[in-house]
Amino acid sequence: MARFIDELKRTHRCNDLRASDEGNEVVLFGWVANYRDHGGCVFIDLRDRDGITQLVFDPNLSGFGDTPKDSYQRAQALRSEWVIGIRGKVVSRGNNKNPKLATGDIEVHVIELNVFNKSDTPPFEIADSIDTGEEKRLEYRYLDLRRAPLQKTLRVRHKINQTVRNYFDSQGFLELETPFMGKYTPGGARNFLVPSRMHAGKFYALAESPQLYKQLYMVAGFDRYFQIVKCFRDEALRLDRQPEFTQIDVEMSFVNQDDIFKTMEGLIFKVWKDVLGIDLHEKYPSGRFPQMPFSESMGLYGNDKPDLRFTMPHTDITKVVVQHGGGGIPMFQPIAEKFKSGQYREDLPAEIVKALRIPAEHASKLSRAELDKLEDFVKGMGAKGLARAKIDETGQWAQSPLAKNITPEARDAINAAVGLTAGDLVFFQFGKEAMVQTVMANLRVHLAKKLGLIPESGHGGKFEFLWVINPPLFEFDEEANTWVAAHHAFTRPHDSDVDLLDKDPGKVLCYRYDLVLNGFEIGGGSIRLHDPDIQAKVFNALGISNEEAREKFGFLLDALRFGAPPHGGIAVGMDRLAMLLSGAQSLRDVIPFPKTQKGTDQMTNAPNKVEGGQLRELHIRVVEPQT
């Protein structure tokens, strides 16, 4: 082995050699990806992180003494995933070229072989496409990472990191660190807690974001900060969530909302160019992404992260239903009565009625059986059912139990409001505003995938960006019967809405914004509150007393009193960005060592129990949950 490490240095990687290298002597290192003994010659596909080169062990290779013969005999013992080094000669493959490989024009005839290490039989094949379940692949993640698809996604991640750092450096930003362990404050995301051995009964919290510290950097006068940082949230997991995740964190002083948009648009354009080779100026000539108010996004798409790769907007027909007293439809009448009696506010409705139009060209592709299955789909999200109707040539509703009850006037008004024409299909959902929005948003995307308007996963070659702006500062928590911050308590309200903080908190809009791509929120941020007086009004609207505010955020409130500049920022999810750019199906495919959906590490069996002595040092006693 010493000869190959000390004397024979690697000359090329396994994706480098081309026809122009014919006749050269080379040294390659890598793993045995494939072994074929053709009775007289042994063929090996040698793999490293960059690609594959075909090796030929020919005992009759002349001009090198007995070394090729010895290498051939030793090559007969090689097996998959053995780690080897070879010295050999580049030879043209002539008419036997392999167009599937970048190195397919050549092969390397081996002179000298060294086995660095043998391998047990892997628990699954190291190949691009395998049927092995994710649980097994996560258990042997270091083997899974040898596969080309995962190698590709991590290269994408590396390239994003490079581009981010270079871009922000060119824009005058400083890359500064913030603490992982900080003060625990109740509310918001659930924190991972770290017990303090030196301070019995006290805990640090792992940072769910660098939010407060990056604001303190602005108070300290650093003006432009960025960081690629790990964050931690002990929350229920799903396809696009991990308990430990990475974000591109940014904060700027003396800026407004549009300044931040321009900065981040510059970053996104650069990332797309460097990573994918795509010039987004072809789609966005001005270099700017479109913007949509939060209220419009909710009205048209039912959420604040719409997928704009296809149309199919919703229509809120609540006012139409109310104007027609429920239109003769029994299930609509209670809602109409509550609005007419003043129990519900038109500007902040507790219940709504929404319609989703499927144009005739798409409606014709859905069978009756498929339509019936949609009922189960929405019930899985808490809906009671899914009303529907098919529009005939005269504008009448067919294939619907609603047809026998709805008044002609209400039907015609709904047809006009939704834009229904012959052959169209329309779905209706009514009830609590939050539930209706969620159901209709998910139904829209579900139908788009079923109809082939967007792929099941990946971007499909389309990138639709959108800034969602001007959301409410507060949302009402019905269980607690109080207003809570929709994002966090340090977001600046619109200047014109400051007076509403005391009078009508639900109508206060703020300078918060989300950057959306293909139905995913890839970034979000806000202009911060730097005025202590307005900050006090926000706390008052949230029912947070001065004492509670000082207990939770005293250090920040003190800092704001020492000449805090106007500032704002944003955080972009690195994992989600890598997932969307690489076309991966889940975040776990772009994180080297991810957790499962249960928050466990299959490879190391974390989390695990800690021995009693360690717990006693930390002043902790474990109380097992009762079954």
TrEMBL record:
Residue ranges, annotated region (Aspartate): 211-214
Highest taxon of source: Bacteria
Tagged with keyword Disulfide bond: no
GO MF annotation terms: aspartate-tRNA ligase activity; aspartate-tRNA(Asn) ligase activity; ATP binding; nucleic acid binding
Its EC number(s): 6.1.1.23
Residues annotated to bind ATP: R233, D234, E235, Q242, E521, G573, M574, D575, R576
Keywords: Aminoacyl-tRNA synthetase, ATP-binding, Cytoplasm, Ligase, Nucleotide-binding, Protein biosynthesis
BP GO terms, sorted: aspartyl-tRNA aminoacylation
Domain Aminoacyl-transfer RNA synthetases class-II family profile: 154-592
Subcellular location: Cytoplasm
Subunit description: Homodimer.
Protein name: Aspartate--tRNA(Asp/Asn) ligase
Taxonomic placement: Bacteria, Pseudomonadati, Myxococcota, Polyangia, Polyangiales
